[in-house]
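B., you asked whether I could sanity-check this one before it goes into the benchmark set. Here's the sequence:
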Amino acid sequence: MVETIRGILQPIADWFAGFGTPEPIVHWGHPLMMGIVIFVMGSYTAWAGWQGRLGSDAEKMAEQRTIHKRLALWMFTFITLGYTGGVLSLVMQGQPLFESAHFWTGTLVIGLLATNGAISITKFGGGQPALRTVHAYLGTVALGIMFIHAFLGVQLGLAI
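And here's what the prediction gave me:
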């Protein structure tokens, strides 16, 4: 299965390699961009979500929830695109796919964020407080795993 996926991705990776992108960018571009998404955007998205949940000013809470909703969608989009870019980067560098803890934590994060998005899209099951609580803590767990994921990514990058 891995070879089938590599066979599908190799022409795409070759197309990107045709741009003549310098090796340090191919090697460290994904970690740099995703680091920004995780540490800056992810942290602020989580902060806005918790402010929207725990604040004392109803108007400010509503504003923070709106910010959280918008940022979370963009963050999920960037993380999903970054995931794809990371896998393509491995193909471009001739590295094994699907073997590292970094790959699996990234897969877990996407699954957690997709689950959280599904909870949100249902308007928390019609406004169920328990689903709002699950959403808040699941998002926090996802952010924590993103930090571990980043650490594992730096280790992987240094090992390649």
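One thing to flag: Residues 48 and 63 are 9 Å apart (CA to CA). Otherwise nothing jumped out at me.
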